[in-house]
Amino acid sequence: MITIPGVRDEISGNMLELTIGGVKAFHLDNLNSCKGSPEHFKVFIGFKNRVCTNLCVSTDGVKLDLKARSVEDLFQQVCELISGFDAVRFLRNLSLFTAYELEERQFAQIIGRSRMYQFLPKPLRSEIPELLINDTQVSRIAEHFYHDPNFSRSQSGTIDLWRFFNLLTGANKQSYIDKYLERGVNGYDFTEQIRLALDSTHPDFWYLS
After folding, report:
1. Least crowded by CB within 10 Å, which of 75, 95, 131, 189?
2. Considering all CA atoms of the chain, what is the largest pairwise distance in Å, rounded to the nearest integer?
3. 39, β-bridge pairs
4. Where are the beta strands (DSSP E) in 50-118?
């Protein structure tokens, strides 16, 4: 993972730096295959929050199953990902999170339903926005709602979606590397779903309904 010098912005007092990185996905490779078969990688471009090293990524900046047969092939596909990434739009979308707040009871409902989600029957679960974090990470989010030095609730008990998103990405740092990027993207998508629900664009959002 590398940081690009000079490409940065600030959201709610947090400095964000453009960051590019990747993971060699050995668990996806067929180690018994003949030489020349494609190898698997996971690569991303996004922003790292300097306050806490949380990684902010979205679907537009991630390739979770990049297949390459050579270094040149890998280089070309990474360049395509970078050239197609709209950093300004992504920062604008992240900054929107600061304009939306969850009341404490809404936060509590999301936490409760996040625990329930993992045990729902499959037919019902397929109709609900996916949440990839595990039960331990949900507990960590609840703990840091009260105690995180940077992203805990306000004195009135509310929490804006920027801080909520950083509680998600902070909890995600406990993930194994093979799940880290998927859960990072899912954390952004999940927070965006909450934003749309608060904006009445998605009123039937199960976690808040």
Report:
1. 75
2. 62
3. 68
4. 55-56, 62-68, 101-102
Q: Which amino acid, 50?
A: R
In 3D space, the residue among 39, 198, 29 whose CA is nearest the CA of residue 110 turns out to be: 198
What is d(CA 135, CA 174) in angstroms, rounded to the nearest whole number? 12
Q: Which two tokens stand for residue 151?
A: 């992203």
Find how far residue 207's CA is from the centre of its chain: 17
* pTM over 0.90, yes/no: yes
Q: What confidence tens digit (pLDDT) does each residue in 146-172 have?
A: 999 999 999 999 999 999 999 999 999
**Are 20 and 82 within 8 A, CB to CB?**
yes
Hey, is 29 helix, strand or coil? coil
Type of residue found at 186: N
Find all residues with CB under 8 Å of 187, minimum gap 6, and list them.
Answer: 133, 165, 168, 169, 172
